[in-house]
Amino acid sequence: MKFCRKNTNIIAPLLLIFFVASIFLLPGCSKKKEEAKNDKAVPVKVMKTKKDKIEDIATFTGQIEAGDEVKIVSKISGKVKEVNFEVGDYVKEGEPLVILETEELYDQLSQAEAALATAKANLAANEAGTLPQQLEQAKSAFEQAEANYLNVKADYERMKALYEADAISKQAFDSMELKYKVAKSQYESAKEQLRLTEERLPKNIEALRAQVAQAQAQVELIKTNIKNSVIKAPISGLVSSKQINPGEMCQAGAALGSIVNIDKVKVVIDVPEEDINKIKEGQETTVNIDALGDEGKIKGKISIISPASGSSRLFKVKIEMENKDHTLKPGMFASVNVVRGIKENVITVPKDAVMIKKHGNVVYVVKEGIAEERLVKIGVTNGDRVEITEGLNEGETVVISGQNMLMEGSTVKIQ
Questions:
Q1: From its phi and psi, is residue 275 left (phi > 0), alpha (psi between -120 and 50) or beta?
Q2: In 70-129, which residue ranges form alpha helices assigned H by DSSP?
Q3: pLDDT in tens, 166-212
Q4: For residue 270, which of 324, 314, 327, 204 has the smallest C-alpha distance?
Q5: Residue 113 burial by Cβ neighbours in a 10 Å radius (0-12, 13-18, 19+)
Q6: Cα distance between residue 244 and residue 79, in whole Å
């Protein structure tokens, strides 16, 4: 009995100490469990979804081309005396580039001018020579023959009436009739001579005048050829090729080189048939030139849309850009962003917020501190933003940073 009472006296104080200690220790354990739970929460950044607008942009690729490229061409054939350009030179429109030898041309000019002088002399001699005099003589002879014929005819008719009335003898009438026939014959002969002279004079003079005109044209042609012996730059720009040297023969129409004008440049892109009616001439575009780095984002404008496509069903579209400082070089690779339309009142999120998984595109929506995986469908993509056509509603909280560490049901900590 003494032993049991002694044990009871020991245990009772121990139970009291344990109870008091538990009162102080239990709150500390609960706090540690809460801290451990918070340590497992994934830190994320979020955004509230709202209705917005987004541009529907298509990207096409192409190469920078010169705004204009013109061949240097000679209008005449000849031996090259001087060549005043090299590839890479900047030349101004009208600047002499190639000079041909002209000795033979000046010899031809001298001969042509002599032929012209001869033709003019022949024309002058004939205009003031025998043919005009013959015409005047023919006219005078005709007028005299006509007057004589009319007088004799009147006398003949009077004598004929008298003869028929037996007022004069047959001998007198026969004499008058002979005189009438002679006058009539002379009249008809003078008339025919005048006609022939009039016909001959204009034909001869016109032929001589034609010879003068022909000789004059030959002189002008040779003068033009002498002028064309200096081959000038057809446009201002940079020489892109050279195919002629001094001493070589130059053929009319052959290309001697080419000049490109890069004050304006262009990019030609191929646009598919489903997009061609969504763009228009005069529309602004954004052209990206990777080779220029940060300075490679340039405004362009659609200048020409091909009215028809080829067998590929692609339409050629030309975009022009200003290039006064000549930083854009023909041959540079370019990507062109063209706005096909604008979608209004749609939900958009940052492109990085959308994750690609085996079962489709997903985003994470936060509800009461828990991440919910949401399957979505995407529409238009523009830069770093993407349209969500299905799966999200306005006003929901979407994770935009830290989503790579999440799974369905993850606890999140919004930063």
A1: alpha
A2: 103-127
A3: 888 888 888 899 999 999 999 999 999 888 877 766 567 788 889 99
A4: 314
A5: middle
A6: 11
